[in-house]
Write a structure and sequence with these properties.
It is a single chain. The two termini are about 35 Å apart. The protein is mostly helical and about 250 residues long.
């Protein structure tokens, strides 16, 4: 028995929202690590580890925008912000718990035998995330609003054609702001970086996102193909028309 459109629409939004939320949350947690691109690939620059999976969030944002409109994007974005806040409150609370003596003793040295305070490392790593979350929530809110708005502006300007243009264009505009804001707030306002370090890493992060947005264009088209097959041509047109009409209001 065929599933009604309302059920398929609900299932699609649930799956896309799940992908969006889990990758956004993971990016926040792992974003405290800055790694050397030179040591990894022989290219200049440093990147935050969180930036590696942000392209998944970009693609998912554009897909949600295509089928559920700006309101659909903002709805899941607000939910994500709330869940990220909850996650970091829980993480911060765990840094206040007194460590067990046997745990400290079992981890009192690193692999080379040097003295190591595992509780200090735990607190230091996860509390860095508190600055990142302030920067990320600020940048995330601005970036998602920009992304959803520019996507729909380009959609109307092109008459619904050129998926790659509205997806890539909206990402490049929103992430130009996001890449700087998140690092400025997290590591300059709440951290100990110089403005020069912020600009250097923000520049590298942005160009990585720029390249990823271009390279992931085929993935976007594949996602559209699979979703269109799942929904059916008529239902796809109906959803896209609703999304476009929603943005025009």
């Amino acid at each position: 028995m065929p599933q009604p459109l309302s059920h398929k629409k609900q299932q699609l939004y649930l799956v896309l929202s799940g992908i969006f939320i889990v990758n956004a949350l993971l990016a926040e947690i792992i974003g405290v690590k800055i790694f050397s691109v030179d040591a990894l690939m022989g290219l200049p620059g440093n990147l935050t580890a969180g930036v590696l999976i942000w392209p998944v969030v970009f693609v998912t944002t554009d897909i949600i925008n295509e089928y559920f409109g700006k309101e659909g994007v903002l709805r899941v974005s607000y939910l994500t912000v709330g869940l990220i806040l909850f996650a970091f409150l829980v993480i911060y609370a765990t840094t206040l718990l007194p460590p067990a003596a046997f745990w400290l003793d079992a981890n009192k040295a690193d692999a080379q035998g040097r003295p190591f305070d595992v509780d200090f490392a735990y607190r230091n790593i996860f509390r860095q995330g508190l600055g990142i979350i302030m920067g990320s929530i600020t940048a995330f809110g601005i970036g998602q609003l920009l992304d959803a708005t520019v996507f729909q502006l380009l959609r109307r300007a092109t008459g619904g054609r050129y998926v790659w243009l509205r997806a890539t264009g909206s990402t490049l505009v929103s992430q130009l702001v996001d890449s700087f804001v998140v690092l400025f707030v997290a590591f300059y306002v709440f951290g100990n970086w110089t403005l020069e370090q912020v600009l250097s890493v923000a520049n590298a992060n942005y160009w990585y996102k720029f390249a990823a947005a271009i390279l992931l264009t085929p993935v976007l088209y594949l996602a559209h193909f699979l979703i269109d097959r799942y929904l059916g041509n008529e239902a796809t047109r109906e959803l896209q028309q609703e999304a476009a009409a929603d943005a025009a209001v």
